[in-house]
Write a structure and sequence with these properties.
Elements lengths: L7 E4 L5 H12 L3 E6 L3 H13 L3 E6 L7 H10 L5 E6 L9 H4 L2 H22 L3 E10 L13 H21 L5 E7 L2 E2 L4 H4 L5 H10 L6 E2 H12 L9 E5 L6
Helix pairs in contact: 1-9, 3-5, 5-6
C-alpha cells in the first residue's frame, strides 16, 4: 500500500498537458485526485478514465476560473465529492496572446492576471479551511520570472512572478500547521499548448534551439514536471518550503 493512500489532491487545470501528467502521477502514488477543468469536459473525463483504468481514484471538478465567483464555484463542486484536502496544485493558467509592453492590450493584461494571479490566490484562501494540517500547496510558476529571456512575454512573466511571492509568504504563515508551500518553475515543455511552435518539421529549428539551451540537451516532457510535483507533494519534501524550484533542465543557468 502506498504511503499516500487515503490522501486527496486537487490539480487545477488538471485535464491536459502538465496538469494531466501531475494528476496521473499523484494518482499512481495512491492519492485520490480531483481533476479540475474550466471548459474541456471531454479532456477531464479522459484523464479521470485513464487514472481509473490504471487502478487509481479520481473525479472531475468543473469551474471557470478567472471570473467573479470562480473559486467559490470550484470549492462547491469539490465539496460534493470529497471531504477535505491534502494537496493543492495551483496549475491552471494562461499564456499571453500578445507581444511585449508596447503591444499587449489592457484587456489581455487583465485576463492574464485574473487567471494566473487572482484565481490561485482566492482559490487557496478559500481552500485553507479544507486543507488538512501537514498538507501541501504547490504553485506553478515559470523560469521567466528569474530573467528577461522573452521580453515579449512580460505580462505573462509578471503574472507568474506574483506566485513566487505567493509561495514564500504563505510558507511562513502556514508553517505552524505543518503545511509546506513550494513553486515549480518549468521552461519550455512539449505539450499540446506549445505544439504550434515546438512540434513539426516547420518548427524543427525552434525545437533544436530549446534543446540547445539545456545542459541536458533535450526538450522537457510533461512527466518531467509531474515527477517534481510528486516529490513536493510527498513526505519526502517535508523539510522543503517557501522554495522556487527551477524545473527548466538548467536552461537558465
Amino acid at each position: 500500500m502506498s504511503a499516500w493512500n487515503g490522501r486527496t489532491a486537487l490539480v487545477t487545470g488538471g485535464s491536459r498537458g502538465i496538469s494531466r501528467a501531475i494528476s496521473e502521477r499523484l494518482a499512481r502514488d495512491g492519492m485520490r485526485v480531483g481533476v479540475h477543468y474550466g471548459h474541456d469536459a471531454a479532456a477531464a473525463k479522459e484523464t479521470v478514465t485513464a487514472i481509473e483504468a490504471a487502478g487509481g481514484q479520481s473525479f472531475a471538478v468543473h469551474a471557470e476560473l478567472g471570473v467573479p465567483g470562480g473559486a467559490e464555484a470550484l470549492w462547491a463542486a469539490f465539496d460534493t465529492q470529497a471531504d477535505g484536502l491534502d494537496i493543492l496544485v495551483n496549475n491552471a493558467g494562461a499564456n499571453s496572446r500578445a507581444d511585449g509592453i508596447t503591444q499587449i492590450s489592457e484587456a489581455e493584461f487583465d485576463r492574464l492576471f485574473a487567471l494566473n494571479t487572482k484565481a490561485p490566490f482566492f482559490l487557496t484562501r478559500l481552500g485553507l479551511p479544507r486543507l488538512r494540517d501537514g498538507g501541501r500547496i504547490i504553485n506553478t510558476s515559470t523560469g521567466l520570472t528569474r530573467g528577461a529571456a522573452k521580453p515579449e512575454l512580460i505580462a505573462y512573466a509578471m503574472s507568474k512572478g506574483t506566485l513566487d511571492v505567493f509561495t514564500s509568504t504563505p510558507a511562513k504563515e502556514l508553517g505552524p500547521r505543518g503545511i509546506t508551500v513550494s513553486a515549480v518553475a518549468p521552461g519550455a515543455v512539449d505539450t499540446e499548448m506549445n505544439a504550434h511552435w515546438l512540434r513539426g518539421e516547420a518548427n524543427s529549428g525552434a525545437r533544436a534551439a530549446v534543446r540547445a539551451i539545456s545542459p541536458l540537451g533535450r526538450v522537457a516532457e510533461a512527466d518531467d514536471i509531474g515527477d517534481i510535483v510528486a516529490f513536493l507533494a510527498s513526505d519526502n519534501s517535508r523539510w522543503v518550503t517557501g522554495q522556487w524550484i527551477d524545473a527548466s533542465g538548467g536552461a537558465y543557468l
